[in-house]
What we know:
The structure holds 2 protein chains of 2 kinds. Chain A has 9 helices and 24 strands. Chain A is an alpha+beta fold. In chain B, 20% of the residues lie in helices and 37% in strands. In chain B, the strands form 5 sheets. In chain B, strands 1, 2, 3, 4, 5, 6 and 7 form a 7-stranded mixed β-sheet that branches. The longest helix of chain B has 17 residues, at 87-103. At the A-B interface, strand 1, strand 2, strand 3, helix 2 and helix 3 of A face strand 2, strand 3, helix 3, helix 4 and strand 6 of B. Strand 2 (43-63) of chain A pairs parallel with strand 3 of chain B. Chain B: Residues 37-100 form the Metalloprotease TldD/E N-terminal domain. Chain B: Belongs to the peptidase U62 family.
Amino acid sequence: xxxxxxxxxxxxxxxxxxxxxxxxxxxxxxxxxxxxxxxxxxxxxxxxxxxxxxxxxxxxxxxxxxxxxxxxxxxxxxxxxxxxxxxxxxxxxxxxxxxxxxxxxxxxxxxxxxxxxxxxxxxxxxxxxxxxxxxxxxxxxxxxxxxxxxxxxxxxxxxxxxxxxxxxxxxxxxxxxxxxxxxxxxxxxxxxxxxxxxxxxxxxxxxxxxxxxxxxxxxxxxxxxxxxxxxxxxxxxxxxxxxxxxxxxxxxxxxxxxxxxxxxxxxxxxxxxxxxxxxxxxxxxxxxxxxxxxxxxxxxxxxxxxxxxxxxxxxxxxxxxxxxxxxxxxxxxxxxxxxxxxxxxxxxxxxxxxxxxxxxxxxxxxxxxxxxxxxxxxxxxxxxxxxxxxxxxxxxxxxxxxxxxxxxxxxxxxxxxxxxxxxxxxxxxxxxxxxxxxxxxxxxxxxxxxxxxxxxxxxxxxxxxxxxxxxxxxxxxx
Amino acid sequence: xxxxxxxxxxxxxxxxxxxxxxxxxxxxxxxxxxxxxxxxxxxxxxxxxxxxxxxxxxxxxxxxxxxxxxxxxxxxxxxxxxxxxxxxxxxxxxxxxxxxxxxxxxxxxxxxxxxxxxxxxxxxxxxxxxxxxxxxxxxxxxxxxxxxxxxxxxxxxxxxxxxxxxxxxxxxxxxxxxxxxxxxxxxxxxxxxxxxxxxxxxxxxxxxxxxxxxxxxxxxxxxxxxxxxxxxxxxxxxxxxxxxxxxxxxxxxxxxxxxxxxxxxxxxxxxxxxxxxxxxxxxxxxxxxxxxxxxxxxxxxxxxxxxxxxxxxxxxxxxxxxxxxxxxxxxxxxxxxxxxxxxxxxxxxxxxxxxxxxxxxxxxxxxxxxxxxxxxxxxxxxxxxxxxxxxxxxxxxxxxxxxxxxxxxxxxxxxxxxxxxxxxxxxxxxxxxxxxxxxxxxxxxxxxxxxxxxxxxxxxxxxxxxxxxxxxxxxxxxxxxxxxxxxxxxxxxxxxxxxxxxxxx
Lengths: 478, 505
């Protein structure tokens, strides 16, 4: 049904070159094909199969005193790539972006567009033929899930969840000669089981490139193993507890940490990564040699790999539209326990004499021991085992103090065994402080972030042991 | 410069082949065996302007548009959407929706029934605004934001200024097999200015943000209609300086007078979401969460004190959730949720009304874009002011011996059953002997919803009532955002738990 985005990119760049020959131009076409199914109370609630496509034109216009940037995004129906009506829309989009750039004035993040010689040309891993069409998905990917899920519904248990699969195809072209097309599939299954007899609620989720690879029957069984833990209820007050954070909970905290690592805010003194007279780069956080890195190649976790090319339609403290087409690489945000890198667009990197580092599309925390979460439970005398975290929000940006809730299973561990299910808590904690205080990290595994999954899915984390996790109040919510 | 006032749906949206798309989609759905089907053409235009320290960082225009078809066949939903706006694609998308319904029918153990609703054959609605933001030159907008940024940067103690303005125009065409056809256009705007002071030597920083809420208005909102920008911006630097000098709060149970600029968000989280019927019966259990306010407690649950009366409405002028018709084709209306402290109602759409035993929907269906299915989303959920006495905020403060007056929203978090919450704010003014005696800092307040609303002693009068709101209320998987407003007066709460976020106590 879809025309290749390459023709649209070329047409937009041709019009841009005619309308503003001195300007830099970027054209990005993104098509998302998506299939979703959701269920609650053991019955399907919503579903959908959708195709969305849009074109963004970014014009980088020379002005007195610098270069201005303007962005125009329009829907990209098939008709946009053909005929005079489509051309009229493209002309208007380019003109709008040029006008916005002129009105905006010289941008602080201005830099020459990266040339393909920088490594952003065709042929790298993840780059398919420029003129190929878009990838597609359909409801057919849920055939296995529908069968296994339907079979799992039981009258004495309530099942809730969501499964999605998407294929995103991107075509990026720039006036500097970059031409890239890449296709990124992804999907996930999340499952929440509730036992009406005890009120116990358990959650688990898995990400996969192909949602058909998720073994839903096995996921159901894993969660059912936890339901009996809710038969013994233990009320505990607020306080500081030795706490085992499973990989999903760790991922949500580390994602927020990474999102807060803008270089400019730190340099300007307005971030938790600022300190008197400079930034926290070089500061040793804690005794464990933990490394938090993003890497397009995702060594050890091939499903987390992503295409190493920067494509963005907005500028901010961490990214710049002037960097479209730049090759991205491995970034170690924290290296062996020490703050190592902050995010800088190329212009800010030059301004502050720091390396160019774009936010990474995956995050992997390594440096722990070989222990699994089960082994860490076994070696715990008394502590809490969490399932996941929820409703995480920043309370104090100067320390990166966050608040949030535990969700779908807090368990008391006594003498290496699960003693029962504990009430939920509200916590107030800073991920920076947690890295300072963590006493044990286990083996790193792929995980699904519960809180930030809508924005960030590619994560691999170890379970962590924190000796004094701060639960500030009890939540009666379950 | 600027063009005359416009209050009609834009011609370029009216020029779309709406009738042909509807006929093609609905006919294909009927042929596919659907008992109900609807087509929605949904366009969103967004302009985002953002300045840092007086320089433009973002000047971006975005438009998304597509068509969506929803079918109900044998009580099972099917949904599909596509970016191509042709009759052929509309028909193909309808067939796809029928196919989706059939493919997954085995997972549907319950059958959906829709409440009957009056048919609105050719309805048009446009939100009230004076100046269409798309008729104002972007140069004029940037000039205004630059001027305000520059003035603030020149003020003592202000090291950084972030100024932004997001403007949205949302247009929908809805047609269903019963014969309802609605065309709507609404405009909303979210301006925001934040100033920062940095302690280079000590290594800390502090910020203060404007209180102007996002509203359903046009560009006139930036130039004096509905908000006094000059007055607010003029006092911002001194308020920030006072905040920086302020002592850290003493933790413990504290009497609070909460300004509407802060309280709207508590209403949103602890009443708005908790009275969504789909949440209350578990539809969001795996994601956004459920509600402690379950339907078996309707008419009996003591939600708060006697002065707590809360309505849902989609009609209030300039409300972000205000529409003419919802995305089920149901006319906008107002209804009670909490009356005299007791839970008396829920927000529903056409599919949930019959489950609750209601004959009609109260009009809360909304989809945030063409590629997403309509859901029960939040009406403007608002707290009633004192109907008898127009009590000013100062009178509420006067009733507090030792407490805090909280202004502006900042951090928020609430659990999945809407019990336990924590909020912070922009400013916290110490109350001593009924008087404001300077700011304190590091304040967060925590409570359980029913305890908090039970501690509500008094509300301010009509003159203190204001709309707050947000563009980004999140719900559902795949995630959808919805704009929503909440009106409320100032209010007095007794002995709410206050935390010191600096010390963690």
